[in-house]
């Protein structure tokens, strides 16, 4: 797309020079170059939708915010993603754009209160119908409707999210109950505040004392 724009600028300059050239030899050279550039532009492949979207993002200017918060639910036919954006209903409809592929979509909201907003979902859990998918603008909200190719339940929106949940579940789902409990305690300790850490430490000390007295046979 960038190369095509450069060719178009070259052609504009050649045309400008042609209007000023008076000598036949110079005009012949410029005409040859003009025809060559026109042919090159004609033979350029049409820009992909994604390239157009990327180019548009670059040309937006201003401050761009990446959206991370959303809600979602589903019906038999659709996966619905809810994105809260205050005042979005006041924008011209063309300022709210969604580009769908079979396994992804990206949202671009332009010039909302002086900022641009983007959200991208890659590696969707299952394929969607590009033609059947759409977006709706509601009060302070954008609703993205992904049409399912098959009417089946989605456990998550993306494949990455599914793998992350399975990995987390596997870390606790062990054949040894005490090992699963230890993993859970480690996670709580790592993510908890000072109060939670003090509580876990106290429980740990007490369990060690009981074990040393022979009250309990198993180390928790």
What does this structure look like?
Keywords: Acetylation, Cytoplasm, Nucleus, Phosphoprotein, Ubl conjugation pathway. This protein is an alpha+beta fold. Among the domains are: 1-43, UVR domain (DNA Excision Repair, Uvrb, Chain A), CATH 4.10.860; 64-148, Immunoglobulin-like, CATH 2.60.40. The protein is 45% helix and 25% strand. The chain has helices at 2-20, 24-42, 49-60, 159-172, 177-191, 194-212; strands at residues 63-66, 71-74, 78-84, 96-101, 104-112, 115-121, 128-138, 141-148. The strands form two sheets. A four-stranded mixed sheet has the order 1-6-5-4, with helices on one face. Helix 1 (2-20) runs antiparallel to helix 2. It is elongated and about 110 Å long. The relative contact order is 0.09. The model has no long low-confidence stretch (mean pLDDT 81).
């Amino acid at each position: 797309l960038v190369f095509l724009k450069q060719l178009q600028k070259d052609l504009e300059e050649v045309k400008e020079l042609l209007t000023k050239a008076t000598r036949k030899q110079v005009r012949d050279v410029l005409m040859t170059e003009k025809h060559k550039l026109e042919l090159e532009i004609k033979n350029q492949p049409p820009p992909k939708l994604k390239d157009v979207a990327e180019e548009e993002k670059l040309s937006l200017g201003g401050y761009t915010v990446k959206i991370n918060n959303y809600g979602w639910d589903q019906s038999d036919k659709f996966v619905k993603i809810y994105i809260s954006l205050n005042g979005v209903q006041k924008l011209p409809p063309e300022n709210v754009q969604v580009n769908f592929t079979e396994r992804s979509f990206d949202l671009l909201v332009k010039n909302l209160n002086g900022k641009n907003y983007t959200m991208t979902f890659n590696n969707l859990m299952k394929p969607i119908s590009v033609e059947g998918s759409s977006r709706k603008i509601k009060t302070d909200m954008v609703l993205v409707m992904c049409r399912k190719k098959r009417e089946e339940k989605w456990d998550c929106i993306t494949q990455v999210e599914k793998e992350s949940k399975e990995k987390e579940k596997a870390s606790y789902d062990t054949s040894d109950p005490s090992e699963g409990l230890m993993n859970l305690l480690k996670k709580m300790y790592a993510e908890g505040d000072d109060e939670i850490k003090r509580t876990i430490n106290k429980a740990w000390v007490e369990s060690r004392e009981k074990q040393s007295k022979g009250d309990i046979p198993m180390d928790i």
